[in-house]
């Protein structure tokens, strides 16, 4: 892919291949590897603005960036619908190290949606505008991640992208699906293209990018300034390196072992093992004969056990 740098206010993002926020997946360890593999920007998983303001336990782990300078390649994603709390979160000590704060206007899950947060903001452009404007007042570089609407046939992306730009946002990401579709089906390339044509700030396209060819198609069809990989980056952790032309000195086996070790060093061996379970179906997609290994990995209780299983069987 032809990569390019992106300018967000006074900040230059090194390239236009982003790693999406993904709750439960894009923690510090995963982001660390994605940054090493060349990602232009990564995102923390969605974090409640009110939770940040009230110092909820657990946020520390979500917002952890280690000591390799990863905050320079990481945006904190927050969700909420109250402009006051959204701005307060941007101004909080917890987010001090992040230059970029991303506003979640795409989360479809009922728990978030019912509170008028996530993609529910797409139902109320006036409130969404206040949220963006208040966050911009914090002085952070504000980016916004939206969907194309609620129901099939909706096409809110251009209107919301325009609103985001006129409210002071520096970048918009469009997940080319409506709420009703959650994560399935082909992305709506036309809606993304219309959003791209509606703004002058960088517009990043997201949805259904699992291969280099998918990324090329996405850019060709939408004219977007870059791509955001989500499940594609977990299914193929080297996809970002392929797209950015970053040399990788690890095999998949070595990567998996290093990933488990890094998780162990941050969350401890047992938790690293339990949390590794959700990566198993993704990392081992290309190993149809590894059924027994996968079953054993899903039962492993410690990171040592996982590493031993992989070393002996992969
Ligand atoms: C398990 C999972 C967790 C996600 N968590 C978030 C999140 O925290 N914030 C967000 O904006 N989007 C989240 N998303 C949506 C992704 O960022 C992305 O928009 C979506 O998966 C579409 O891209 P894809 O088709 O390439 O996977 C999540 C998606 C998945 C599958």
Rg for CA atoms: 19 Å
CATH arch. level architecture of the largest domain = Alpha-Beta Barrel
Q: Order of strands side by side in the largest beta sheet?
A: 3-4-6-7-8-9-10-11
- Count the helices. How many? 16
Task: Please report the distance between the alpha carbons of the first and last residues.
Answer: 31 Å
Secondary-structure-based class equals alpha/beta
Fourth-tier CATH superfamily name of the largest domain = Aldolase class I
Mean pLDDT: 96
Number of domains: 2
Q: How many E-type strands?
A: 11
Give the names of the bound compounds.
flavin mononucleotide
Principal-axes shape call: globular
Beta-strand portion reads: 15-25%
Which percent range fits the helix content?
Answer: 40-55%
Quick gist of this model?
The protein is of the alpha/beta class. It contains 16 helices and 11 strands.
Describe what you observe in this structure:
The chain is an alpha/beta fold and about 325 residues long. The chain folds into 2 domains: about 5-245, TIM Barrel (Alpha-Beta Barrel), CATH 3.20.20; about 250-314, Putative flavin oxidoreducatase, domain 2 (Non-ribosomal Peptide Synthetase Peptidyl Carrier Protein, Chain A), CATH 1.10.1200. Helix content is about 40%, strand content about 15%. The protein has an 8-stranded parallel beta barrel, surrounded by 6 helices. Strands 1-2 form a two-stranded antiparallel sheet. Strand 8, helix 7 and strand 9 (about 170-180) form a beta-alpha-beta unit. Helix 7 (about 155-165) packs parallel to helix 8, helix 12 packs across helix 13 and helix 13 crosses helix 16. Bound molecules: flavin mononucleotide. The site of flavin mononucleotide has 22 residues, from helix 10.
